[in-house]
Structure formats: C-alpha cells, structure tokens
C-alpha cells in the first residue's frame, strides 16, 4: 500500500548542493525534506578547493567558522608541463574584501558541517526516485514516487541529484556530454607528517585509460611520476586505494544552460544537476554553494514560490554558463588542445598568453562574485 507524505519543499540528493540548499531554506524559514538514495552521507570525492566566492556562500550559510580553523589558506599554485619541464607560478592574490582565501577541504568534513545544521529527521536515506508527476491547478504540486512505494507530494521540488539527475531529465535538460578528458582522484594519507608545502601543484601530461584503483596507483607510481619531485612520488605511494577513482569529465554545454529551461513551475535544479563542469578551475562545489544561497534568498523574497524559482533560474543562468565555458577552456589549454594541428597552437597559447593574461582575469571574475546574504526567517 502506498504511503503518502506532504512537504513544503523536497530536495533530491544529499550532496553539497542538496545539504547547502536545505541549510539555506532552514535559515529563511522554509522547511524541507532531503531525499538521498545512499544509506548514509556520500563521502565520494577526496577533497575540493573552495575559492573566496564559496567561502562567502558558507558564511551566508553560517558554517564557514567550522572549517576555516582546520584548513590553512593557499597562496600559490605551481603548474608544470612535464613534456617541456617548464613551471609557471600562479599567485592567488588577496582581494580587498578581507576574504578567507583559497582553502582545500575534505569533502566529508564539508558535508558533515552542513548536515549538523539540520534536524536529525531532515534527511531521508535509502530513498530512490522511480518517477515524478506534476499536478496542474491553482496550487500545483509535484509528486515523487519512491522505489519502496512511498509517494511524496511537494509544493517545491529541487533536484540536487548530480550529473545524471532524474529531476533534470524530467525538466527536459539535455544530458551532460563527455569533455574528452578524464581525471584520477585520490587522497594520500600520512600517519605522521609530510614535507609538502601548502600550495597547489598541477602537472600537465598525457591521460591514461580507465582501470581499477589498485592498477591506477601502480601505473602512476611506475610511469606517470618518473619526472615528479620526490615529495610527490611519496604522496602517490601513500595514496589510499579506497579513495582512488577514475572518471570521465562531463559537462552541460553552456548553450543548453542559456537556451533550455532549468525551472518549470515549482521544480528546478542546483549543483551538478544543473551545471556539471570540468574541474580545472575548481568551481563545481563553489558554484553549488552559490546556488544554495541564491535559491534561499530568491524564495525568501518572492511573493510566490514559483516566482522565487523563476528569479533563481534567471540569476544563475549566465553565471554558471560562464563558469562551465571557462572551465572547459582552461582544461583544453592545459591539455594542449586536441590531437593534431591544434596541439602546438594550444601549447603556445598556454605558455605565452593564457597563464599571463587570460587565467588571472578568469580567476578574478569568478572569485569576486558575491552571492549575497540570507534574510533570517520572520
């Protein structure tokens, strides 16, 4: 027998975007229910770098103070081209706003910091969506059917369910496309200490085929780190195989974000469900945190829920389309373009133009964004 539940706002997905959105709505006085298909908080993804635009969002969400003491700010990045041996130092200049800087944080720590702000029953785990229906009328509601037979009715449905979002598919958004690049991610564990400096290190080289975590670690140790400094070879040797993953890098093309609807009635999307992007400028999680604050602010200030969602979609459209485009360009340049005639052109552009003129302007524009504050509940 079907079990019916009614909620003001239902959020699909308890990742960064979902939890941050739930916290934002709590601050402005809108109750929500978060549906998560996993049996507990997802800890996939070792760490992420949060730029000042993300820290402003975390301050609006009232959780920045939990994380800032744990993670020191990073002031520089060193980008090394292994084919030529050249290294470019990219400074992270401080802004005039007194920002907290750029900090790399454990993804699990960020999720826990957000989840602690929510009531214990705010997240419903092991909840997999089977289908979505929307009833029309003077007060339209969206019905979510779960695989356990439960039926949940919501005035507002927000999809924060990742790249392969069920909610985005229901909205009619085109699927994310393969960028032609992939990423190996992992976490190195040093039980005692390490001699690494507090900076971002990036090495540009060829890609490798998909494989198991154990094979990836072995392949990186044998071949891909031959020209790496000793301290980085040590980091690879200390990689926890359980955190190592290989995945293709997907994105939603910018024109889909500009031309297709990311909101229909009282249904919308946020985070990777709206704007999956490649990671070269470190803005996936940052943009998700921005989404949460803007969404909470728009819903709090609008006379009607649907109007608030319309305002949110309109405000985010150009911002996230620009970030997706900038991330893809950065990755294309860093990887030397595609195979063939473009490779020497891309390498010349990277060495002579990109890191000197283009990249600093992209970073400054993205870092300088302020998503605003959240009005407290009345």
Automatic annotation (TrEMBL):
Pfam families: FAD_binding_3 (PF01494). Transmembrane segments: none annotated. Residues 7-325 form the FAD-binding domain. GO terms for molecular function: FAD binding; monooxygenase activity. Coiled coil: none annotated. SUPFAM superfamilies: FAD/NAD(P)-binding domain. Keywords: Monooxygenase, Oxidoreductase. InterPro entries: FAD-bd, FAD/NAD-bd_sf, MOase. Gene3D superfamilies: FAD/NAD(P)-binding domain. Belongs to the 3-hydroxybenzoate 6-hydroxylase family. This is FAD-binding domain-containing protein.
